[in-house]
Amino acid sequence: MSIENLSNELFYEIFNYLDCYDIYNAFYNLNYHFQQLLTCSSLLFKIKVNSISDDIYTDNYKQFILFHKHQMLSLNVFLSSTYEHFFELFPVDKSFNHLECIILNDIKSIKTHSLLTDLTCLPRLFSLSINLNYQNKELTDFYKLIFALPHLKYLKCSARSVNVSLSLPMASEQQLSTIEYFNIDHPYTSHELSTLLSYTPRLQKLKLTHSDDNNSINSHIPTIELFNLTTLTLNKPSIEFDELEIFIKSLKCLLKSFHFETYSEDTTYLNANRWEYLISKYLPGLENLYFEYKEDSEPLDNSIHLDDFNQFNSSFWTERQWIFETTIDIYDTRHSIRPYKKQSSVDYSKSLRLIFICPFNDEDFQYPVMDIQNISTETNYHHLEIRYEPIDFQTLIHITNGLCELDVLKLHSLSLSPSKNCCLMKN
After folding, report:
1. Cβ pair 367, 421 in contact under 8 A
2. Residue 375: closest CA among 410, 316, 424
3. Three-point CA angle 72, 78, 84, nearest 5°
4. Alpha carbon distance 194, 221 (integer Å)
5. Burial class (CB in 10 A: 0-12, 13-18, 19+), 381
6. What H or E segment, with its residue span, contains residue 194?
7. pLDDT tens per residue, range 11-66
8. Would you say the pTM of this structure is higher than 0.85?
9. What residues contact residue 107 under an 8 Å CB cut-off, 6+ apart?
10. What is the DSSP letter of 116?
11. What is the pLDDT of residue 326?
12. How far is CA 339 from CA 233, 256, 290, 342, in A?
């Protein structure tokens, strides 16, 4: 059977996984059948550009793109030098009438402004991601141009500069954006965030991912009205619980899903009562909570905060089918809250889980000695999992005897001889 006898639909499915240049280089010059197939208006291409060179961007390929702009679905351009040359070769105009997604990496603001102005002519530009380089500090005009894009649904803006300046006024009725998903990955103050979000009343998903935020959240943060917002993802390693509470209070929305990760030293995050108050009063419609708190303390030592963990097994948590989980390995200790997997056959109505991750094939490593009674008497864990390294039978018996409320035990490997590495017993 000849490859030409395969259906066009199958080729379209294959082309879905390939870059435009790979498709052109592999198929266009095979024969007339493939030339007709590649020029069919129903076939849309994805372009990814890492560099422009004479070897890759032959005159024939350049002509192919120029004559088939209407078949371009997405555009991913990397490096500032590439950016300048690419848009000289392929200026943006209305002929890119199927272009839905643009990703611009490591670009300069000077060139960005002229491009963003040109993007307003694109009738189907729904997604825009921009990664600005160190030279970008003033983002006011940049955001003005983006918020003017008439059909945009998704926006991600990343900036490496730590001295970002943003002096937008609050949005007027005529300046409101169509954006529904906003990922902000650059520094900002509380006031700047409030101002940015005033332009996005249709926002459904918000992601704040910048990990180097030196601006604390104060009690004077303006109210942020986002009545369509249902999903919030927050990555603020240094934020304290009181600051998180202030931020949540400032939001006028009906969140259904909250994702939050922190490295803060504030152990209030491990206080179930504070979480219950925050959620009950300000997030009453919350259905899914994904929270992770990381400790940099030595693994398996007595500094782990165990005394309040039983509070996470109250009816407030079990009725919502949320699990509190402690994971201990050689790097850190992680405490998390998340919904349990409903497809699992295990009953997680008792919601406290403990996981030990032993070092994999590391014969020289030994865990520090740990008082296992500290865990078993202070926290009634119901699910215990020991991963990777074999645990010896004697140690396992000692641990499970201490966990009186244990319902589920999961082992990745069990050894009948004493284990060198899993030194979990009290001396």
Report:
1. yes
2. 424
3. 85
4. 8
5. buried
6. helix 190-197
7. 888 888 888 878 887 888 788 888 888 888 888 988 887 755 545 556 777 788 88
8. no
9. 77, 80, 83, 130, 131, 132, 133
10. H
11. 83
12. 16, 13, 7, 8
Q: What is the DSSP string of 51-69?
A: ---TTTS-HHHHHHHHHTG
Calpha distance 48→103 (Å, rounded)? 9
**DSSP letter, residue 26:** I
8 A C-beta contact, residue 260 and residue 290: yes
What residue has token string 């419609």?
285
Q: How far apart are alpha carbons 79 and 107 in whole angstroms? A: 6
264: which 2 tokens? 């803060």
Please give the helix or strand (H or E) that residue 197 lies within, else none.
helix 190-197
Stretches where the chain sits below pLDDT 50 are 54, 213, 299-304, 343, 360-362, 365-373, 421-427
Buried-exposed string 207-224: b where 16+ CB fall within 10 A, e elsewhere:
bbebeebeeebeeebeeb
Largest CA distance in the chain: 79
Residue type, 180: E
63: its two tokens: 């002509």
Q: How many CB atoms lie within 10 A of CB 241?
A: 19
Question: Nearest-CA neighbor of 276 among 263, 289, 266?
Answer: 289
pLDDT at 109: 57
Task: Give the pLDDT of residue 368.
Answer: 42
